[in-house]
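Reviewer 2 asked us to include a model.

Predict the structure of this chain.
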Amino acid sequence: MKVLFINKRKLGVTIIIIGLMTILFGLEKNFDVKLKFTALMQNDIKSLTQYSGLKNRLKYKLPSNWDCRVQDIFGDEIVYHSNFKSADGKINGFVQVWNLKGNLKIFLQNSRSISEKQNLYKSYNMSRININGRNGYLVEYIITKEIGDSYRGIEYFIEEGKQFCRFSFFVKDMDFKENMPTIFETIVKTLEYK
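Predicted model (structure tokens):
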């Protein structure tokens, strides 16, 4: 027969630590939601309006005070295209759905090679992401101009079977605010695509 000795003090400390970790995890999730809401409010975004396309297979939300215009696209690659612009004109972008022929990462690397022949990049970063259970890539860059303004591009490419959704946001570098990536991610997370 084995005798098991339990150190009540260590057991009590361990239980308290586990309890505190659980409480902090719950507060962190709540804080994250409030932080995103605050970022929206700081940029005068009071509500989001839902847009849909492709016979309601595509749904996403944009700030209600932004201008959004769907364009008819006729082609094999891009099957949906919608431009948007913030009320103050500082944020421009678009939402697209593409037919994917091959690997998304290779597609993005080829796109970068082509773009580098036409544009001068100050920085460029591509990272893997998961949005609402879907894999994809986040591409962030700054395009510089010899004359004129530099622009920041923040683009989300989200895979969906043999297609991908693209959310692109463009801001003049001088108008860029630190909370804008939080706003953009909040918008992208409204994506529903079947």
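The radius of gyration is 22 Å. The chain is about 30% helix and 40% strand. We have added this to the supplementary material.
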